[in-house]
Amino acid sequence: MKLVDESVRKDQKRQKYKHRADLLFIAGAALFFMIWAWQWNRFDLGLDGPDEWMRFDIIRYLTEHWDLPRGDNPAIINPIWGFSYAFHPYIPHMISALFIRIARFFTDDIHILVFTARLASVIFGTGTVWMSIKIARRLLKDRADQWIFLFLITFLPQMVYLNAYVNCESMAIFSTAVLIYGWLRGMDSRWNLKSCILLGTGLALCALSYVTAYGFLVCSFLFFCFSILLCQEKKWDFPALFKKGGIVLLVFMLLAGWWFIRNGILYQGDVLGIRSRDLCGEIHAQDLYKPSLHPTYKKDGLSFLKGVRAMCVGLGWHRDTFESFVGAFYDTSVRLPKLIYNLYKILFAAGILGCLLSFRKLFSVRKDGRWREEGILHWTFVLAIVIPNFLNLYASYAVDYQPQGRYSMPMLLPFQYFITLGITQIIDRLVKFKKARDVIKGALCFGLFLIAAYALRYYSLWIQAQ
């Protein structure tokens, strides 16, 4: 009996230690994001991140008027581009406006107010770290592998940067983390009420974040259907699918439906606001910036494949997108040293190679005459990686050439999951002793943090030189 009690106490102590380590990591990540947000608070350079100055127009309006502006409100229409970002959901900007109104009780210092507005992105970024920990604990068995996954996500320089200025991408990435965790909870619970509510909440967050993450709406629908119809005790249980799907839909509509109903009323049925935004830009933009005048390969009559070839071979779309996925700052013109991009190329290549070596194990969807839910999950991850990159590529081909990695960032969690699997597969095959493997994995985590810290220093020095 004493031996059993001692074992229980040791297990409780280990769990308590792990919980404290997780909380410390979350707090450290939040502090790191806030340091980045504060470091680049330079108004002689203008607002820092891509489009941040246009997004602050919405925040200023919300702060002063405390009501939701239409996208074509003259007070927030950009004089160059002729439109505003208020055609699309701006939940993070509402949070920023609330923070600014609170901060104004204590100070009118513009630097502090800008930093306060950026805290919305810090919060969503910290939420992504928190959800990533929950995901790692369910997806990866080895503790060291879990930490690699967390460091790959948290300290990718571009991820840190997105969590340090005003944007909607940080919320979009957070929503993908909530959805992935919802998928895992649904798998474990056979889609009980809580997991359905969680999935509906994640879908609402995703829909209210940024259009680049909308691929996760498709992925969630497919995984939810396949999981219930193929992987439960009763196959092709459509009554269960409709019942549980109804709960998910109800939660989604309660949390997110209001925005799209509002858009439909304001913009003659344009629930997404895209058509109305382009029309606004066509009317109000300066001549060179009207949507109809954006030069694209599609307008030139090239097919999609020929346009992609021209963008990649002639313009280096793939290179610029990769580098800005790893880290590109200010208006994306400030790039890190080539060595860092090359290190990430090696890291990602090793991860992909490791996954290919275990392809059958990872992606087999049938085993012993039964459907493998894990294999379906992995194929869903692949789709979640492909969709945002395709949308990014197609937008540059057909709408406006912008090779920016931030438009591919919704793939971050599933992509880094596969990279983690691949790297750890290679390490585990090459190194036989577990302690040695743990040392190597710990060194990798430390190296990822050092790169992020170097990126902070690198950009700080660039700002000082301006």
UniProtKB/TrEMBL annotation:
It is found in: Cell membrane. GO terms for cellular component: plasma membrane. GO terms for biological process: lipopolysaccharide biosynthetic process. This is DUF2142 domain-containing protein. GO terms for molecular function: pentosyltransferase activity. InterPro entries: DUF2142_membrane, LipidA_mod_glycosyltrf_83. The chain crosses the membrane at residues 21-40, 80-100, 112-135, 147-164, 207-229, 241-261, 343-363, 375-395, 407-427, 439-459. PANTHER family: MANNOSYLTRANSFERASE YKCB-RELATED (PTHR33908), MEMBRANE PROTEIN (PTHR33908:SF11). Pfam families: DUF2142. It is a multi-pass membrane protein. Keywords: Cell membrane, Glycosyltransferase, Membrane, Transferase, Transmembrane, Transmembrane helix. Its main location: membrane.
